[in-house]
Amino acid sequence: MQGPSTFDSTTKARSLAFLFAAGALVGLLTVGFPHDETATGPVLAVAAVSLALTLTCLRIGGRISEAAQHAGLAAVTVILSLLVYYAEQATMYPLIYMWPALYAFGFFSTPAALAHLALLGAAYGTVLSIDNPPNATLRLVLVLGTPLVIGLLISRLLGRMREGLRRSARQERALRSSEQRTRLILDSSRDGFISTDAQGHVLDVNAAAEALLGRPRAQVLGVKFQDLGIPQEEHERFEERRRALLDSAREDGTRHLAIRVEIDRPDGTRLLAETMIWVVERDGEWMFNARLTDIGDRLREQQERERLVAAEAAREQAELATTTIARLQAVADAALTHRHLDELQPAILQRTLEVMDAHAAALLLRRDDGQLSLTFSDQASQEQRPDHVRADAGIAGRVLASGEFVLVQDPGADDLADPSILEAGITSILALPLESSGKVIGVIEIGVRAPRRLSLDDVDLLRLTADRVALAIDHARAFGREHRIAETLQRSLLPQMLPAVPGVTLGARYLPAAAESEVGGDWYDAIALTGGRILLVMGDVSGKGLAAASTLGALRNAIRAYALDGHGPAEIAERVNRFVLAEPARDHMATLVLAVFDPVSGRLSWVNAGHPSPLTLDGDGAPRFLEGARSVPLGVLPFPAYEEDTATVASGGAVVLYTDGLIERRGEHLETGMALLAKAAAAGPLDADALCDRLLATAVPSGATSDDVALLVLCHVPIGSHLELDIPNEPSALGSLRGLLRRWLAQSDASQTDVYAIVMACSEACTNAIEHAGAAADETIAFAAVLRDGEVDITVRDRGRWREQRPPSDQGRGLELIEALMDDVSVETDDGGTTVRLRRRLTAAVEA
Amino acid sequence: MSPPPATLEHARHGDHVVVTLRGELDVFNAADMTAAIEAAVPPDAHGAVIDLSGVGFLDSTAIRKLFALAGRLGERRQSVHVVSPEGSTVLRTLELVEFSRAAPMHDTLEDALERLVQKGA
Q: CB–CB of A673/A658 below 8 Å?
């Protein structure tokens, strides 16, 4: 248990000495103030012994042991008992027993103290039993009970006191270890700590300060701070500031000072330190504490950090700029993928939303009627919006009037040409003029919903966007114009009407590519030549658009001119090749098939300048591609050899010319397309229009092509028991008529006389029809011949009215000739025209 | 093979011009051809021999033009002789319209030239 160690031995010995001294004093006082029964002699002896023991205890002092203490206290008990016995002070004297009792409880543990109390009781009991005074038992109880109660209280108080002392000892230890920790912290800190007295003499430094100063602790203590390496010229200033700090601390309590000091170390290096100095008052003394932070490293670190932060910021900025530029570019690029204004506008708005990160966008473009067409980014609700608005109202009106941007927060319905924008929750609107070639062509508006607000910061980016939007719209409009011109030009270059040539029927189709793409350079032509022949042209100028269309036009006219000059296919090809080569500015090339067909002989002669091979069908519909006469495209070589090839197209057969759009399909070989074409051609009736429709339906089922498709079909009239011809209202056609008629008659065993008569009569009848057809010059003459039961029956029908009277001097006598040559002639005229019917029985048998 | 467009050649044989036609003559080319024949006969020539041996077809319009041509040359005191071989379709047509009333007909060019020489002599 926690023992008397709380008190040191000296205190214990002195207390014991005090008890003995008190005993001696009591003895002397008893002798000094004796009463009747006092035995002076023994009392003096006891007092002397007690005094001696007092001196002994004082001499032993701090070296007294616990056993000696117990012995001393027991001696005190004995001395006091002797004094009580000899002094005979009956009532109050025994109270001196309190002294050893208190000592026992004060310096010994409670059991030991009780043991001494028992010793006291025994001693006093002995005294009482010897004297046998009255009421001895009560006196014993009082003498022992009183010290017992008081002693226990004291013991308790002392216990408390000891506990308090122990606690404070613990706290002291904790404080000591805390100090050590603080010291440790200070010493392990990278910052240097220095404390000085009021005059600046160093009192203490930590390890870091030693390192920073470059001096060991021993060289630093007691030195004035400014002598630790602060340059001489700085001393005065430093001293001033130190004093000023001290003054201000005394006056208004300001206790901090942050300065930057340079300190030259003994090794010649220099320390740049940020120094925080604060002044503290301890026990009325002022002292300074300083913290030194080496900012050489920190500066470098900070610079490095700033550099990294700046680099990161620059990178982010660059990325942001890149994204923005890419999005801006996307606005401009919209014109590349969407060439038509109608498709371009929604695309532009979508991209504007992305660039501006806006919730709504609108394009308002000036129209010819002075209004503004309105396109809104939200296409879903487009139907409920007006498609145009007034140019002098709303935000757009203000933009157009001022030519400047307009920024509106919380717009009212009056601000808006289209109030439905409010329903979309748009609360902040920015509008900018769209300018093209210095003219304002419209307005672009963007809007955002709360809590976002558009601000002046958004103007620049929207202006960049608007520039590109205007450019894209310009492109689209220019493209639209060119597209229309090119389309018109190309259409005008295709024959309005195919020529009527006896013995053939012609059909043609031109399918422009789907709206997205440009007009191509496909074209076809059919030109009636002398002698009833016909020139078929199928070509494809490389390139697209206006340039291709105009080259196409030049080529077409050149071919026509050369053809009418009487040149054959090869000659024409060689000449137009020079023509294409002579167009230096246009880097154009053209593929071309030129084919001359003679309906009477059925002979086809052609050249092929790099074009897909023509397809022919014989009378039974069997297909064959004409692979011959192949050569290079026009515009490639200066002297290409174009050589004609010939083939016979049977009566009832056909020739099909086409451009690659008809056979080219994505992801398929050309052969596949050609095979499909041949199959489709062979699969139905040989009528020019029907054949065209069939081929298109097979090759372009959807009706929309990615490339232009041109198709030209010639059907050779079938020559059987019937011969049906459409004869153009031109005298030049009569030669073909006679030729075809002779061919037809040749297969019907007609004699030379029959042939002569019939050919003559038909020619005359058709001549009359031509001459008399009158205004209906573009109508054809329907010629039909049939051989029935040895009789040829011919009908010639025109849409005109034969002249009633014949010139009297007419020595040609057409009708008379007819009448002379034929068995039966009838002329019927009605409102629809005139029909001449001629019949002649063949005289073959007679002639033979 | 279709008939080629009609062609015309002419050559001087003494006092006469021989005009050789080939192809077919109809309403399409008759006027041009007869004008060309007329142009081929200079004022100093005694006449023209029109050789139709190479002509495969002659229609009523061509005949009318030939009648007219013969008339005009006759007014200029220039004779017209026509060569058309026996059996040809052209001769058949010319006979139908009794062209011999407008101009003497000959079977061959040699016959025609011989006749003219005899006549001139």
A: no
CB contact under 8 A, B3 and A738: yes
**8 A C-beta contact, residue A360 and residue A424:** yes
ipTM confidence: 0.90
A817 Cβ under 8 Å from any chain B Cβ = yes
Chain B residues within an 8 Å CB radius of A819: none
Distance CA A456, CA A406 (A): 10
**8 Å CB contact between A651 and A502:** no
SS (H, E, C) A280-309: EEECCEEEEEEEEEEHHHHHHHHHHHHHHH
Helix (H, G, I), strand (E, B) or coil at A597: strand
Q: Report pLDDT digits (tens) over A631-649.
A: 999 888 888 889 999 999 9
pLDDT(A656) > 90: yes
Element holding A464 (H helix, E strand): helix A457-493
> How many Cβ atoms sit within 10 Å of the Cβ of residue A37?
11
Contact B118/A at CB under 8 A:
no
ω before A231 within 30° of 0 (cis)?
Answer: no
Of A738, A810, A817, the CB nearest to B96: A817
User: Do B63 and A763 make contact, defined as CB atoms within 8 angstroms?
Assistant: no
Residues of B in contact with A821 (CB under 8 A): 96
User: In terms of CA atoms, which chain B residue is nearest residue A819?
Assistant: B96
Interchain contact, B26 vs A763, CB within 8 Å: yes
| pLDDT value of residue A4 | 45
Q: Does residue A743 belong to the interface with chain B, where contact is any CB pair within 8 Å?
A: no
Contact A533/B2, CB-based, under 8 Å?
Answer: yes
- The residues, any chain, with a CB within 8 Å of residue A395's CB and separated by 6 or more, are A406, A408, A411, A415, A416, A417, A429, A431, A443, A445
Owner of token pair 């040989």: A686
Determine phi and psi for B77, rounding to 5 degrees.
60, 35
Tokens 């010819």, residue?
A368
- Who's near A173: CB < 8 A, 6+ residues apart? none
A605 interfaces chain B, CB cutoff of 8 Å = no
Residue to mutate among A725, A734, A843, with most B CBs inside 10 A, is A734
Rounded Cα distance, A535 and A561, in Å? 12
Q: Which two tokens mark A27?
A: 């003895």
Span between the terminal Cα atoms of chain A, in Å? 169
Pairwise CB contact (< 8 Å): B1 & A600: yes
Quick one: pLDDT at residue A84? 79
Question: Does pTM surpass 0.90?
Answer: no
Q: Express each pLDDT in A74-128 by its tens digit.
A: 888 888 888 877 776 555 677 777 788 888 887 888 888 888 888 888 888 888 7
Which of A252, A240, A245 is closest to A276 using CA atoms? A245
Q: Does B2 touch chain A (CB under 8 A)?
A: yes
Residue-wise pLDDT for A402-439, tens only, equals 888 888 888 877 766 666 666 777 888 899 999 888 88
pLDDT in tens, A466-501: 888 888 888 888 877 777 777 777 777 788 888 888
Residues ≥6 apart with Cβ < 8 Å to A252: none
Query: How far away is chain B from the Cα of A598, in angstroms, using its nearest Cα?
Result: 7
By Cβ distance, the residue of A531, A603, A730 closest to B4 is A531
Q: Which residues of A touch B26 (CB under 8 A)?
A: 731, 734-735, 763, 767
pLDDT of residue A294: 82
Q: CB–CB of B60 and A817 under 8 A?
A: yes
Rg (CA), chain A: 67
Close Cβ partners of A26 (under 8 Å, ≥ 6 residues apart): A47, A80, A83, A96
Q: Identify the helix (H) or strand (E) that includes residue A403.
A: none
Rounded CA gap, A577 and A805, in Å? Answer: 54
> How distant is the Cα of B121 from the closest Cα of chain A, in angstroms?
33
